[in-house]
Amino acid sequence: MGKYDLPEGSLISFMSNKVKKEGGINLAQGIPGFDPPPELLDSLESVVQKPVHQYAPGTGNNTLVDQLTDYYSKEGSFKRENLLVCTGATEAITLLYIYLSNIIKENYTVLAFDPAYESYKHLPRIFGQGYIPFPLEDYEHVDFEKLEKTIKTDNVKLVFITSPGNPLGKIWSRGEIEKLIDLSEKYGFYIIFDAVYKDLYFSEKPYMPFEHIGERLFYVNSFSKKYSITGWRIGYMITSAKHMEKIRSIHDYTHLSSPSPLQHAIALYNSKSNFGEDYLKKMRERLGNSFTLLKNALTGLGFSTAKAGGGYFIWTQLPEEFTDDFKFAVDLYENKKVAVIPGVHFTGKSRRFIRLNFARKEDELKEAIERLEEFCQNGKS
Question: Among 40, 182, 229, 291, which is least packed by CB within 10 angstroms?
Fold first, then answer.
């Protein structure tokens, strides 16, 4: 295998593992550079001496499930039977994929909006379904006429959507989401709505289609990014009781339950903090500032950056002198020890994009920018 040959597996793991092994600045993986809420860590410390170290209920810690039910009942008529705690949003998405692959009794195609998060692309490959990366115009707008034609002609039965997105920080408008839901009712496809960045927006609060969760729309969220605890792996999903009964049965045999002490600690923190309201206000301000700092620096270096309304990531096109995103990422790390993700991991449309994680501390981000400036001024790809 040559130095610039694409490796098997996730490029996110490939690039971030370089930092974990050899050091450097990790703008590759979606790991926040921010500490979790101190009160949450206090909650964890307070529960570890309690009898919470055996299996949690398969559906989730009872207090946590009650909290989530109360929280979301303000948005719709949700009950405990609509909710399941999972080991992060990734398990929730995979569990839904397994379930839907069993109930869709035909060969079908999966669609996600290009550039797409890695799970959306690779689950169809693993399970043997077709996959369509549907392009957004200017990485922002949806051509719904073209989308409808694609759904109809390619027998699309599952669509992934995330808002704010990854790797794009696009926030979907209410009108766009409702058009997509109208199409799902017309053509009978399912939607998995990934909301892990729901609370991490810069200014415009994202619309969440809670009133549509049920027969064809599945909702997924997580505490990982919300509380800067990606290593805890506590997520959840919401759907109709009809679907959930069967999904829980699959969950019993594939995963059983998520870590009990961590669920206890989150539930305790939620009760004291109104679901982290003050922490999230500070996070939104920090993320907005970090995005602006990195975007301005990239623009000054000749990058062309997509619009973003939230999340952790900048999606940006390389300056003209760089023509291969994987080579750029490898050379940048080897020369300046800054890890980023080549855009080829998310799209086959172009080899001139990279994704950078801006959810880092300001001093680290400034150091990364300085190294990136030196590389772009001196390096060629």
Answer: 182
